[in-house]
Amino acid sequence: MDISGNALVIGGGGIGRACAILLAREGASGVMIGDLDLEAARKVVDECFAVATNSGFRAESAQVDVSKEDSVSNIFDRMVDVFGRVDYSVNCAGVGAERPRDISSLPLSEFQRFVDVNLTGAFLVMRQASVAMRAQVPRPVSPSGAFPNRGTIRGVIVDLCSAASMAASNGILPYTTTKHGQLGLTRNSAIDNAPYQIRVNCICPSWTDTPMVRKANEGIEGHADFVNSKLPIGRIAIPEEVADAGLPRVVRHITTHNDEGKSMFLPIDVGDHHRELVNKSAIANILYSTHEHPVNLNGDADVKYARENEPGITVKNGTVCRLIDFAPGTVSPLHRVKSIDYAVVIEGVFKMVLDSGEERVLHRGDVAINRSTAHRWINVTGGGLLPARILFVLQDIRDLTIAGKNVDKDLGVLEKDYVGLPGHAGPAPLVGGGGNDEKFDSEF
Ligand SMILES: NC(=O)c1ccc[n+]([C@@H]2O[C@H](COP(=O)([O-])OP(=O)(O)OC[C@H]3O[C@@H](n4cnc5c(N)ncnc54)[C@H](O)[C@@H]3O)[C@@H](O)[C@H]2O)c1
């Protein structure tokens, strides 16, 4: 994530609280939390201050009733007055089922309660967010400069829909109905807002351990057992897993020395060079590279080298420290790098498959010491539904002989992603991966 703007999070309950805290931690310059329950919103503000990473961070709480037109207009006006603009609008206000309801005995008042908050409320928040964002000038999607090709944007709107936006369950008709409506609201608002450079999305979580679900567990007999029996990962999600649906922002801290010889940090950044790989299903963030051994730190010569030179997959006589984020289900081509490679799983679960067919599953914190073997990585996180991340540190090695044969790097189709970088001057091969990567060819 590349977060630096101002966020309005409406609904500071389980998921809203997690979103606000995450935004503060990821670098937002301002967060306003609105809720019907002002005391709950105030507590979230304190929690945001405790984790904020932006040195100019500001946060405020406000009472809002999303079912009331004036109340929603007021909180957006206040947001613009206090913070100047609304870069992110996240609507997490909602009501859930507290006891079973059947269509034949459902009072209109109860149905209307869901419509007022979940549907009218979502509409009013979506409308005011659209109005506020259309009135502001676009800013870079990636203010850090890490992804310059992503252009500019006026704002980002996220609405909390639900798995119930796509399916029905016994006894929760008003919830299912309003969540289906919210999905339509998101879809149409996304189309309406796209020409104005406003991105609109929704998140459709399954059961998540928040006050909303705890109330349902108390009021609906057998609900907790039903939830637990239905979840493929064997447990209910935690709110942070909904807020943090992507991978956290990378923050790089480089040390140096000042003129008096005291240790200090260079300004925080997100890495110098970024490169899309594997048909854009993985992105490499080069955290550092060196080109000699021993490394020359005098006058920060190494920092200058790392800044000015995007490395190839390895650097002759040097090292590369590279973080790679893999999209859900990504299968890398079979490839061999001429290096000794320390690979640490930072997020997610991977299969590492060798050219012999031998394979191992690596979990978060597991380390592979890859001694120039032909291998592929498969991101199997969440059954292939979630992104994941590996940190690679590669060191150059001497010429290598295996089974009596000289072995060089063989990146297969991955070679085309490195063309033009040092060590990759030649034209990209059309197919490859040990020259014969049927699995990769069939999947891409
Ligand atoms: N928890 C889950 O399992 C789950 C699953 C899928 C979707 N969702 C959706 O995520 C969103 C957040 O749910 P949660 O689990 O964090 O619930 P929660 O009950 O913990 O939080 C909801 C918040 O909305 C506030 N709220 C209620 N009515 C309001 C109103 N009229 N105006 C302003 N604020 C109001 C409540 O005070 C509360 O703080 C909801 O839209 C919910 O439907 C939740």
UniProtKB/TrEMBL annotation:
Lineage: Eukaryota, Fungi, Dikarya, Ascomycota, Pezizomycotina
InterPro entries, per database record: NAD(P)-bd_dom_sf, OryJ/VirC-like, RmlC-like_jellyroll, RmlC_Cupin_sf, SDR_fam
Name assigned to this protein: Uncharacterized protein
Signal peptide: none
